[in-house]
Known about the structure:
The chain is of the alpha+beta class. It has helices spanning 78-82, 137-144, 170-174, 179-190, 199-213, 226-237, 259-277, 280-283, 289-302, 323-331, 339-352, 357-366, 383-393, 404-416, 428-431, 480-489, 510-522, 566-588, and strands at 72-73, 86-93, 103-111, 120-125, 151-156, 218-223, 241-247, 305-310, 316-321, 467-472, 493-498, 555-556, 592-594, 600-604, 609-616, 623-630, 635-643, 650-657, 666-673, 676-683.
Amino acid sequence: MKRIPILMLIVFTCLLSGEWLQAQRPTPPTKVNPRIPHFPIKPGVPQIPQTQQLLRRVEPARLPASATANVIPSTCPPDAEALGALCANVKVPLDRNHPKQGTIPIYFELYMHTGAFLESAILMNFGGPGGTTTGNRGIAFFLFGQNLDVHDLLLIDDRGRGLSGTIDCEELQHGTAPWDQATADCAVQLANAASRYGTGDIAQDTEAVRAALGYDKIDYYGLSYGGADLTAYATRFGNHLRSIVLDAPVGTPFLPRFAVDRYRTHAEPRMVRLDCLRSPTCYADHRFPDVELDGLIWTVRLHPVEGDAYDANGNLKHVRIDEEQLLGNVIDNPTGNFASTGELLAAATSLWQGDPKPLLRLGAEGYYSQVEAELGDPSSFSAGALQATACVDVQQAWNWSAPVSERSEQYADAVSELNLDYFAPFSRKAATGLLFSFFGRDCLYWEKPTPSSPVAPPHATYPFAPTLVLSGDMDSRVPFEEVSKVANFFPNNTLVPVAEAGHGTVFWTQCAAKLASDFIETLQVGDTSCANTPETVWPAVGRFPLLAKFAHPAAVDPNGQNQIGQGERKVVTVAVATATDAMQRSIIGFGDGVGLRGGTFHTEFSGPWTTTLTNCAFAKDVTVNGTVTWTYAGSFLADLTVSGSGTAGGTLHVEGTWQAPGAVGNFIVSGTLGGKQVAVLVPEA
């Protein structure tokens, strides 16, 4: 599912945060091109555990007694060796229809249980496709380390990715040619093997590793496109499954082309709506989010918005937002913890009032053209493996035997035959273009010279193994509509929607992470009530006031001695928004940027985040200087100096929590403005 097309590099790059670690928060991740499937990193909390925090090795790694001679030991990467991994590979035929034509090594890492009794091995697949599994060993420990008393942990790199015969198509990987040309050249590079990376083949590789290690039962966790891997395995080797955990799973076999894209376009308004209605700041101004979103879509469809804006790192970009960019780069590519999602409606209102700056900024922060990007080391993420798997797995709207020119015509014909409202509230053009459609138009240039092994074989039988299925109610990448269809194939499933979770629920709430871990331990779903209430309500914005007088006034604190009037209470709201706006930009970017209407900020990520504001402006007539400190537990402290033509000026002290688990409270603001005492409250989200 993609857009480098990375919409899915995390379906998808996956990654994380089940339970909060009190450890140094890494520098924010490099942004990925949204055309490639990826899992959104949850940047507001510490991410991947440092290896030294996970050290558990007490004796040299060893093969289980049940292992066969097919297991070939390999040298472990340093992080894996430190964790006590056994690293090895199993050679399998590259083409099972022609097994004598060569093999491919399937690399895996095995982490042994610590107790005297072994129940099973936990197998994880983080999806993508294209990403490493073993390279995410820290996440695997983070999620299921507590299960290693009676379970081994088995991480397998799917063929073509990680350390399993990595596909390295230079043009695709490093953005040195247009995507279409690079895709075609990659298929030529793979030649007769271009159809040998389907998920059906991957399932057979997984079985080869299981058999070589001698496990009778495995517990399989499949995230996003990992749901397709799990489905492929379950429908072929289901007798070896002790339990199944599907998290935001792709995996409905034989789904008609455009169906998943339709689910996603229908889920986008729900994501915007829930994000706004759960935030007291946004809800106060936007009681009918769907109506406003429809209005914005029509506005940019008929009159695209164009201009210059700064991205989160202070880089000035020229942006043009039409419907395709709005859908593919803004709505479908939520930045931070739904920062762009929570600002979209307020930005629309500003646009209708003649102020396009907030919307253009969202465009600059999410903007990707169809010029490809540098994707780095293919053993971490392989764009070639992405195409080699997804393009042959998905039912396409063309005949693979046709030349590209005819495929394009067939694709266009298939789009034209869809109902006009098929992707409502979006148009057919926006939903089937390169920026949004996963594994559709960009696969036109792939070659499929021989049939690939399908996700599920014809007339597949699904196992009765206990199955937990998790779905975030704010997941627009693999939304509930698709997840529920996947779940229905598994006869012994329990489907649990998780409130305020995005793609990959275990990375958004401790509740989901615990449900998954406990389920593998007990084979019982247990009490799911924690999933019904948002664990964290993500901050949203009600309005972007040009001047302070257009802001909402802060509420008077009944426990204080407030002396300022309504005008200065509006200034307080603007000052707090200036501080949280800079924090949002630091989550999205690397910590150095510009204020919405001027000034700069700088964030230090070592220890608690500390953001320094220099003449920052959220409204044109209020300038804010000072520092903001945000800790991993969500504690928010700010000392701000306020000046400008819209205020009498003074100093403010702000205390509260931000992007923290629990009910939404209020920032408590004290200080003086114009020599008068301040005692007011501003919503924390």
